[in-house]
Write a structure and sequence with these properties.
By secondary structure, the chain is α+β, with helices and mostly antiparallel strands. The chain has one domain. The protein is built from two helices and four strands, in the order E-H-E-H-E-E.
Length: about 90
Protein backbone atom coordinates (compact mmCIF):
# COMPACT_ATOMS: atom_id res chain seq x y z
CA UNK A 1 0.00 0.00 0.00
CA UNK A 2 1.32 3.43 -0.91
CA UNK A 3 1.97 6.11 1.68
CA UNK A 4 2.29 9.80 0.81
CA UNK A 5 4.00 12.72 2.52
CA UNK A 6 4.31 16.44 1.88
CA UNK A 7 7.35 18.67 2.26
CA UNK A 8 6.75 20.93 5.27
CA UNK A 9 8.82 23.91 4.08
CA UNK A 10 6.82 24.13 0.85
CA UNK A 11 3.55 24.67 2.72
CA UNK A 12 4.50 28.28 3.41
CA UNK A 13 4.44 29.19 -0.28
CA UNK A 14 0.68 29.54 -0.64
CA UNK A 15 -2.19 29.89 1.87
CA UNK A 16 -4.67 27.91 -0.25
CA UNK A 17 -2.30 24.96 -0.35
CA UNK A 18 -1.88 25.15 3.42
CA UNK A 19 -5.63 24.96 3.90
CA UNK A 20 -6.04 22.01 1.53
CA UNK A 21 -3.16 19.93 2.93
CA UNK A 22 -3.21 20.84 6.63
CA UNK A 23 -6.41 18.92 7.27
CA UNK A 24 -4.90 15.60 6.12
CA UNK A 25 -1.33 16.08 7.30
CA UNK A 26 -0.05 14.08 10.27
CA UNK A 27 1.32 16.86 12.51
CA UNK A 28 2.81 14.57 15.16
CA UNK A 29 6.54 15.50 15.28
CA UNK A 30 7.40 11.87 16.05
CA UNK A 31 6.06 10.87 12.63
CA UNK A 32 8.10 13.43 10.64
CA UNK A 33 10.18 12.09 7.77
CA UNK A 34 13.54 13.69 8.37
CA UNK A 35 15.40 13.06 5.11
CA UNK A 36 12.67 12.66 2.53
CA UNK A 37 15.06 13.59 -0.27
CA UNK A 38 18.04 11.76 1.16
CA UNK A 39 19.45 15.09 2.34
CA UNK A 40 20.04 16.46 5.81
CA UNK A 41 18.48 19.83 5.10
CA UNK A 42 15.74 21.69 6.91
CA UNK A 43 13.66 21.79 3.75
CA UNK A 44 13.92 17.99 3.31
CA UNK A 45 11.56 17.30 6.23
CA UNK A 46 8.15 15.93 5.30
CA UNK A 47 4.93 15.06 7.11
CA UNK A 48 2.89 11.98 6.23
CA UNK A 49 -0.57 12.47 4.81
CA UNK A 50 -3.09 10.86 7.13
CA UNK A 51 -5.76 9.89 4.61
CA UNK A 52 -6.47 7.12 2.12
CA UNK A 53 -4.43 6.69 -1.06
CA UNK A 54 -7.20 7.97 -3.33
CA UNK A 55 -7.53 11.24 -1.40
CA UNK A 56 -3.74 11.72 -1.29
CA UNK A 57 -3.49 11.21 -5.05
CA UNK A 58 -6.41 13.58 -5.65
CA UNK A 59 -4.74 16.31 -3.58
CA UNK A 60 -1.50 15.87 -5.51
CA UNK A 61 -3.38 16.04 -8.82
CA UNK A 62 -5.19 19.25 -7.84
CA UNK A 63 -1.95 20.90 -6.68
CA UNK A 64 -0.16 19.91 -9.90
CA UNK A 65 -2.97 21.24 -12.12
CA UNK A 66 -3.82 24.40 -10.17
CA UNK A 67 -0.33 25.56 -9.23
CA UNK A 68 3.13 25.09 -10.67
CA UNK A 69 3.90 21.33 -10.83
CA UNK A 70 6.86 21.65 -8.48
CA UNK A 71 5.52 24.27 -6.07
CA UNK A 72 4.82 21.61 -3.47
CA UNK A 73 6.98 18.51 -3.12
CA UNK A 74 5.24 15.23 -2.40
CA UNK A 75 6.83 11.88 -1.64
CA UNK A 76 5.64 8.28 -1.88
CA UNK A 77 6.80 5.15 -0.10
CA UNK A 78 5.54 1.60 -0.46
CA UNK A 79 6.08 0.83 3.24
CA UNK A 80 5.75 4.24 4.86
CA UNK A 81 8.97 3.48 6.75
CA UNK A 82 11.66 4.61 4.32
CA UNK A 83 12.42 4.50 0.64
CA UNK A 84 10.65 7.82 0.05
CA UNK A 85 10.75 9.04 -3.56
CA UNK A 86 9.58 12.29 -5.12
CA UNK A 87 6.20 12.18 -6.83
Amino acid sequence: MKHYAVNIADLYKDKAIQIMVWGVMDTNPDHAIMRAEGKELLDAIAAPLDCDVERSEAIIEVVRKRWHPRLLRFYVSESGHGGWKSV
